[in-house]
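Justification of resources, computational component.

The compute hours requested in this renewal are based largely on the per-chain cost of generating structure records like the one below. Each record pairs the submitted sequence with a full structure-token output. That output is archived, and it is also reused by downstream analysis tasks.
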Amino acid sequence: MIVFTKLQHIRLTGIAVILLLFGVVVYAQEEPSLPAGLSNDQGHEEQPILPSGLGAEPAAPNEAGVEPSLPSGLKTASSLSPTEEKPVPAKEPWLDVTGFWEVRSGIRLSGDDHEKHDSIGEMRLQLEMQKNIENFTFKVTTDLLYDWLYENHSVDLERGEGFLDLREASVGFSPTEFMDVKLGRQILTWGTGDLVFINDLFPKDWQAFFIGRDTEYLKAPSDALKASFFTDLANVDVVYSPRFDSDRHITGERISYWNGSQIAGSDDTVHTDRPDDWFDDDDLALRVSKNVSGYELAAYGYWGYWKSPAGMDTSTSRYIFPELNVYGASARGQVGKGIGNIEMGYYDSRDDRAGDEPYIDNSQIRYLIGYEQDLPEIAPDFTVGLQYYVEQMLHYGDYRRTLPAGKADEEYRHLLTFRITKLYWNQNVTCSLFTYFSPSDKDVYMRPNVNYKVTDNLAVEVGANVFWGDYPHTFFGQFQNNTNIYTALRYNF
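The structure output for this chain reads:
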């Protein structure tokens, strides 16, 4: 069975390499593509559509050696063919289907006694379907997945496991001019942080993020009702989830982690008690936003549970999701030549407000300030972004006093992020580096990535997830043995 699996792996990798070489050879034999806007290729949404009459037209009849037809209304009986019919206008497709096909593979760069040497190995087909019927928009996005590393094809839509991952299944409509409604499975996001989240309390998929899937898969879907209200005073977004949607958090099945006393992985997976009763274990999120003189101001509220395990039930030795309220605010707008943002949130740990429950996370205040700017004076298509983030644990004295044996967390956790992005070759090659650095934890997480758009439909990607830390119990330090590199081939349609 192991030999067969390896042969499958080698065969699939070989197919991917052959397809890649074939695409490069074909591309090299073709004439160079025209600059954006001059091409007749209408393949993708990213290229603007020419106005009616300016697009590529069929060859005129006289180019085929036939006399040009008379204008409408001037045709005589002799000029009409007995079988000629009036032209039938083209019908719009009943269902718009887009998506991509992708192969992605990666390996760990260091030995990990708790996980496989390969970090990711999967083939994915995403189908996105949309249909407008009167005032309703129906949308379904489904991923069909073949994972040759873990070969667990049983579907679990909550954890995103198995051969099918339902990313979206929703219906949207506008009951009034000032209100939009979207109901069903959907991807939700708000807040101002760049890969740092304070008031965005919608589920994330941290396993996908760390093993090398595309960044879009950091966002996990929610089963929710979203209502948006647009008024002159402010815009209001309300999201209600009838059943709690947790993060797809680290479990040890693909990423090794610190279990409180040592590094563990697939030999000691995380077991949780997740609130999952419909309409009893629900959560609610609220955002009120207003644009004032070009600056977007927003206030947030959340009433639900910690999204990742933040406590333990000592009677069952299972991790739990304690109750949590979050209240926050943000501002974003132009600062100098760039865009600045500031955000904060108060995390009210409702099951440990006094800070003396040793097995439940304390309340916190989280702060974020960021800035992003294009720097054409250094190089064209060159962008730099910086962020400074702080987590402050409240009731720290009570936390230390009641702490059982083990490593204590710091009262303040500081985190700096740096993003550098440079585009090359008419913006067909994107080189980026995103870095997290914590001076308090003394650990680092780096995400270098190079994406080459071979054609409008075909792209090749190479990247890495690099972890380093002085201590095995810090957030990024615990993943040090999971450092990996990956490559991907994606065809969009």
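Residues 141 and 266 are 30 Å apart (CA to CA). Residues 2-29 form the longest helix (28 residues).
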